[in-house]
Structure prediction request, 646 residues.
Amino acid sequence: MKGYNSETIRNIALVGHGGTGKTTFLEAALLATGVISRLGKVEDGNTVSDFDKMEIEKGYSIGLSVVPVEYNGCKINFLDTPGVFDFVGEVDSAMRAAGSAAIFVDASSGIQVGTEKAWASCNQFGIPRMFVINKTDKDNVNLDQVVEDLKAKFGISVVTLDDKDAVTEAIAETDEELMEKFFSGEEFTEEEYKAGLSKGIASGDIAPVITCSSVKGEGVKEVLDAIIKYIPRPAIHKPYAAKNEAGEDIEVQPSDNGAPSVFVFKTIADPFLGKISLAKVITGKLTPAMEIYNPRAEKSEKLGSMFFMRGKTQGECPSVSAGDIIAFAKLQFTQTGDTLCDKNSIVMFPAVEMPQPTLFTAIEPAKKGEDDKLTSGLRKLNEEDPSFSVIRNVETHQELLGTQGDIQAGIIMAKLKERYGAEVVTVPQKVAYRETIKGTSDVQGKHKKQTGGSGQYGDCHIRFSPSQEEFEFVDSTVGGCIPKQFIPAVEKGLRDCMEKGPLAGCKCQNIKADLYFGSYHAVDSDEMSFKVAASLAFKKGIVEAKPCLLEPVMHVEIIVPDDYTGDVMGDMNKRRGRILGMEPMAGGLQKLVAEAPQVELFSYANELRAMTQARGSFTQEFERYDEVPAMLATKIIEAHKAEEEE
Prediction:
């Protein structure tokens, strides 16, 4: 593939609801431009874009893939994205790299949830967009109605380019002078019309609509023509936000000239080539064997193998200019989200902000002794897909896989087994309950042991009471009843006991221990004796001070369309949650602020999706610990005792 400059490159992400034909359109585009000789089918597993083994098995896209198409002297870099909502991280990465989007719509289905999400994503990233109404060959298709629905949903900026009056009105909306001319009844000049249309599309104020049938090949070249004609070239992309070496905010204007700067937006774990880094060149030019600097890692990388990717195939790359998308093999220090630049002209672009995981699944190796294999596999997969997280809960000793939903979790576990031989099983997620006290107690802990030689002796009197601190230790002894050198041993013994409470073996918190009296033996007393004495006092004192069980409570923010507000609020009440407030948002959305026990939210990601037809989203973070209701606490304590007896 020959090199292209920023004037002849277009980058566009294919987004939209699953099943709208994004991958099939790419097949049709490759067929129309002579790259392939027959149209591949998703169901047959032979498309250029969906080349991963898992994608072939499942029949849908899992990761984004880059497919360049050469047409009429231009290179269009298509970034094919998954339509399954669990893989929104792939869409976000593509949007950062592409700078424009084609929202695919099924002609027979019309607007779907994925259509709305794609539009919102374009707004989020502030990029131009166009609609491609695909599958026009289906029966009972009413294209006029689909277009009218798009206009009603997204505004008059949605226009078909062969309806000149509608286009003129949309152009007028983008400029005050043109608006005045429009309302005065004056016609736009041809120059004003073209300039206004280009400006409106570039700013995102106008979204043109194109129709096609990818399966029949109808309208495919018209889509390619529209992309070249209307989608902004990289050279006129708005400046990129970045930081310089001093950490100051700067703007970087795309240009073929100047020092090179590159943004790495995706990592692929190729079974043959190893790690492949997909990157967009923002400024300058790159050639193989060039040395380039990674400011995050503070290391230089030597560009070895450098190539263009088209699905799983690699094309030769003698050089690459600003605006183009390139692949690097085996970069040593570079990760997704990194910037590569000239060491003497350091620039850092912001990393891709991945969505916060909302579903956590407890996993463990299917076979004992394979923890290292699991850890290694998860680390490698996380390089490829940073949208999932792995958290080790130190209190429950569980490995938690954080994802966007069941589908992503299933794919990750399947890849662990297939690629790295790390088979995992899911187990019920545990709650990190805590224990505390609501009352006070005054107890003695005395440890005395004679073994024939020197013995052991420790004696301490401690008052226990609630505290605002996690653990508060006070030494109130006087007169040397306990020698000063043994006081730290008493505190250490108490702190050790805080790790396991008497009710359900949970970590204790908010307890004050006041050591006010004790006794010692000149020969038999030592640090260990007083540690044991303190532990005896703790176990007795906590039980006498009205112990109770605490559960983690989460702060939850839920964003849903107005129509679902009542259902979501009612459901939250059933989860022992409470709504703290509501805040109207743009686009007919409501933000609900709530609190709910963590245990009630384990499967909330799936249930909210079902409740709102995938239109709802939420985030959660730890807020505080609250007392567990008595009936539930009894069940938890009984379950713990039964487990201890096994």
